[in-house]
Design goal:
This protein has 2 helices and 5 strands. A 3-stranded antiparallel β-sheet has the order 2-3-4, with no helix packed on it. It has a two-stranded antiparallel ribbon with strand order 1-5. Helix content is 19%, strand content 37%. With 81 residues, the chain is of the alpha+beta class.
């Protein structure tokens, strides 16, 4: 799987939130990310990541461990996971 992250500048957050709410109910989530590397920093030097993500959403807690390889596309920074 290759991660693709899109970003957009929102000029009117209240209108966007109202429009999204009219399309579907929302869910509040809290993400806590911790990144790990070798003492030498080799993962970061090579553009790789090892992340532990803790997610709390609607009373549920989930832990996700993700390894990402170096970016395959420089403009978006998309990385295989």
């Amino acid at each position: 799987m290759i991660e693709a992250e899109l970003k957009a500048r929102v000029r009117d957050p209240a209108t966007l939130r109202a429009r999204l709410t009219s399309l579907a109910s929302g869910e509040s989530s809290v993400y806590r990310d911790s990144y790990y590397d070798w003492p030498t920093g080799n993962l970061s030097i090579d553009g790789r990541e090892l992340r532990l993500r803790l997610v709390e959403a609607e009373g549920r807690k989930t832990a996700l461990l993700t390894y990402k390889e170096p970016a395959v596309e420089s403009v978006s920074g998309s990385k295989p996971e």
